[in-house]
Structure to design on (162 residues):
Protein backbone atom coordinates (compact mmCIF):
# COMPACT_ATOMS: atom_id res chain seq x y z
CA UNK A 1 0.00 0.00 0.00
CA UNK A 2 1.33 3.42 -0.95
CA UNK A 3 2.21 5.83 1.82
CA UNK A 4 1.10 9.45 1.96
CA UNK A 5 4.65 10.47 1.10
CA UNK A 6 4.66 8.25 -2.01
CA UNK A 7 1.25 9.60 -3.09
CA UNK A 8 2.44 13.18 -2.59
CA UNK A 9 5.56 12.50 -4.63
CA UNK A 10 3.52 10.90 -7.42
CA UNK A 11 1.09 13.84 -7.43
CA UNK A 12 3.96 16.33 -7.44
CA UNK A 13 5.53 14.54 -10.40
CA UNK A 14 2.19 14.51 -12.26
CA UNK A 15 1.75 18.26 -11.61
CA UNK A 16 5.29 18.91 -12.80
CA UNK A 17 4.67 16.89 -15.98
CA UNK A 18 1.43 18.77 -16.68
CA UNK A 19 3.15 22.13 -16.13
CA UNK A 20 5.85 21.15 -18.65
CA UNK A 21 3.17 20.14 -21.18
CA UNK A 22 1.37 23.46 -20.66
CA UNK A 23 4.63 25.39 -21.17
CA UNK A 24 5.28 23.51 -24.43
CA UNK A 25 1.73 24.08 -25.72
CA UNK A 26 1.91 27.78 -24.81
CA UNK A 27 5.28 28.12 -26.55
CA UNK A 28 3.98 26.35 -29.67
CA UNK A 29 0.87 28.56 -29.84
CA UNK A 30 2.87 31.76 -29.40
CA UNK A 31 5.52 30.68 -31.92
CA UNK A 32 2.93 29.75 -34.54
CA UNK A 33 1.06 33.04 -34.16
CA UNK A 34 4.34 34.96 -34.55
CA UNK A 35 5.46 33.27 -37.76
CA UNK A 36 2.12 32.89 -39.55
CA UNK A 37 0.82 36.18 -40.97
CA UNK A 38 -2.47 37.40 -39.59
CA UNK A 39 -4.19 38.21 -36.36
CA UNK A 40 -5.25 35.35 -34.12
CA UNK A 41 -7.54 35.10 -31.13
CA UNK A 42 -9.47 32.56 -29.11
CA UNK A 43 -12.96 33.35 -27.84
CA UNK A 44 -14.92 31.26 -25.36
CA UNK A 45 -18.59 30.29 -25.71
CA UNK A 46 -19.60 33.61 -24.07
CA UNK A 47 -17.69 35.49 -26.82
CA UNK A 48 -15.02 36.63 -24.38
CA UNK A 49 -11.47 36.86 -25.65
CA UNK A 50 -9.22 34.34 -23.91
CA UNK A 51 -6.15 34.85 -26.09
CA UNK A 52 -4.97 37.39 -28.65
CA UNK A 53 -1.76 37.29 -30.68
CA UNK A 54 0.80 40.07 -30.69
CA UNK A 55 -0.37 41.22 -34.14
CA UNK A 56 -3.96 41.35 -32.82
CA UNK A 57 -2.79 43.56 -29.94
CA UNK A 58 -1.00 45.86 -32.38
CA UNK A 59 -4.11 46.07 -34.57
CA UNK A 60 -6.25 47.24 -31.65
CA UNK A 61 -3.36 49.22 -30.15
CA UNK A 62 -3.99 47.60 -26.77
CA UNK A 63 -2.03 45.08 -24.73
CA UNK A 64 -3.61 41.66 -24.22
CA UNK A 65 -4.47 42.62 -20.62
CA UNK A 66 -6.93 45.18 -22.03
CA UNK A 67 -8.50 42.70 -24.47
CA UNK A 68 -8.54 39.31 -22.72
CA UNK A 69 -11.75 38.92 -20.74
CA UNK A 70 -13.61 41.46 -22.86
CA UNK A 71 -16.50 40.48 -25.12
CA UNK A 72 -16.68 41.07 -28.85
CA UNK A 73 -19.17 43.85 -28.12
CA UNK A 74 -16.80 45.43 -25.57
CA UNK A 75 -14.03 45.54 -28.15
CA UNK A 76 -15.97 46.32 -31.35
CA UNK A 77 -19.00 48.14 -30.01
CA UNK A 78 -22.64 47.12 -30.33
CA UNK A 79 -22.88 47.95 -34.04
CA UNK A 80 -19.67 46.11 -34.90
CA UNK A 81 -20.72 43.04 -32.92
CA UNK A 82 -24.16 43.03 -34.56
CA UNK A 83 -22.56 43.00 -38.03
CA UNK A 84 -20.63 39.86 -37.05
CA UNK A 85 -23.45 38.17 -35.12
CA UNK A 86 -24.49 35.68 -37.81
CA UNK A 87 -20.89 34.51 -38.20
CA UNK A 88 -20.37 34.31 -34.43
CA UNK A 89 -23.59 32.31 -34.07
CA UNK A 90 -22.44 29.89 -36.76
CA UNK A 91 -19.12 29.32 -34.94
CA UNK A 92 -20.95 28.85 -31.63
CA UNK A 93 -23.17 26.28 -33.38
CA UNK A 94 -20.02 24.30 -34.22
CA UNK A 95 -19.66 25.34 -37.86
CA UNK A 96 -16.41 26.45 -39.47
CA UNK A 97 -16.85 29.97 -40.85
CA UNK A 98 -15.03 31.83 -43.63
CA UNK A 99 -15.97 35.34 -44.75
CA UNK A 100 -14.55 38.59 -46.10
CA UNK A 101 -15.48 42.12 -45.18
CA UNK A 102 -14.36 45.63 -45.99
CA UNK A 103 -14.66 48.48 -43.51
CA UNK A 104 -13.25 51.91 -42.83
CA UNK A 105 -11.08 51.86 -39.72
CA UNK A 106 -10.45 54.64 -37.20
CA UNK A 107 -7.37 55.78 -39.14
CA UNK A 108 -9.71 56.54 -42.08
CA UNK A 109 -8.31 53.74 -44.20
CA UNK A 110 -10.59 51.17 -45.80
CA UNK A 111 -9.31 47.63 -45.26
CA UNK A 112 -10.45 44.25 -46.55
CA UNK A 113 -10.16 41.37 -44.11
CA UNK A 114 -10.54 37.61 -44.54
CA UNK A 115 -11.85 35.95 -41.38
CA UNK A 116 -11.92 32.29 -40.37
CA UNK A 117 -13.51 30.80 -37.25
CA UNK A 118 -12.65 27.24 -36.23
CA UNK A 119 -14.87 25.87 -33.43
CA UNK A 120 -13.30 24.22 -30.39
CA UNK A 121 -15.41 21.22 -29.36
CA UNK A 122 -15.27 19.19 -26.18
CA UNK A 123 -15.11 15.39 -26.35
CA UNK A 124 -18.94 15.43 -26.00
CA UNK A 125 -19.37 17.84 -28.94
CA UNK A 126 -20.12 20.92 -26.83
CA UNK A 127 -18.74 24.14 -28.32
CA UNK A 128 -16.20 25.54 -25.86
CA UNK A 129 -15.26 28.50 -28.03
CA UNK A 130 -13.50 29.11 -31.30
CA UNK A 131 -10.18 30.10 -32.79
CA UNK A 132 -10.35 33.20 -34.99
CA UNK A 133 -7.92 34.15 -37.74
CA UNK A 134 -8.00 37.54 -39.43
CA UNK A 135 -5.85 38.33 -42.45
CA UNK A 136 -5.64 41.80 -44.02
CA UNK A 137 -5.86 41.29 -47.79
CA UNK A 138 -6.22 44.97 -48.74
CA UNK A 139 -2.97 45.14 -50.71
CA UNK A 140 -3.75 41.92 -52.53
CA UNK A 141 -7.20 43.25 -53.44
CA UNK A 142 -5.69 46.53 -54.75
CA UNK A 143 -3.09 44.65 -56.81
CA UNK A 144 -5.79 42.39 -58.28
CA UNK A 145 -7.92 45.43 -59.20
CA UNK A 146 -4.94 47.20 -60.79
CA UNK A 147 -4.10 44.10 -62.82
CA UNK A 148 -7.70 43.79 -64.00
CA UNK A 149 -7.76 47.47 -65.01
CA UNK A 150 -4.50 47.07 -66.91
CA UNK A 151 -5.76 43.99 -68.71
CA UNK A 152 -9.02 45.77 -69.54
CA UNK A 153 -7.21 48.83 -70.94
CA UNK A 154 -4.95 46.57 -73.03
CA UNK A 155 -8.00 44.79 -74.41
CA UNK A 156 -9.64 48.12 -75.25
CA UNK A 157 -6.38 49.39 -76.82
CA UNK A 158 -5.98 46.20 -78.86
CA UNK A 159 -9.58 46.48 -80.06
CA UNK A 160 -9.09 50.11 -81.17
CA UNK A 161 -5.96 49.32 -83.19
CA UNK A 162 -7.54 46.36 -84.97
Amino acid sequence: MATDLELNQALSQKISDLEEQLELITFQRDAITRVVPGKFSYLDAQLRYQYVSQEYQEWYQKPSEEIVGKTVEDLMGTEGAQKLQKYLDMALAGQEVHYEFTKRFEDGEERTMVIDYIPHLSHTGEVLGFFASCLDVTELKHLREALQEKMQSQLVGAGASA
Remarks:
- The radius of gyration is 23 Å.
- Residues 50 and 68 are 5 Å apart (CA to CA).
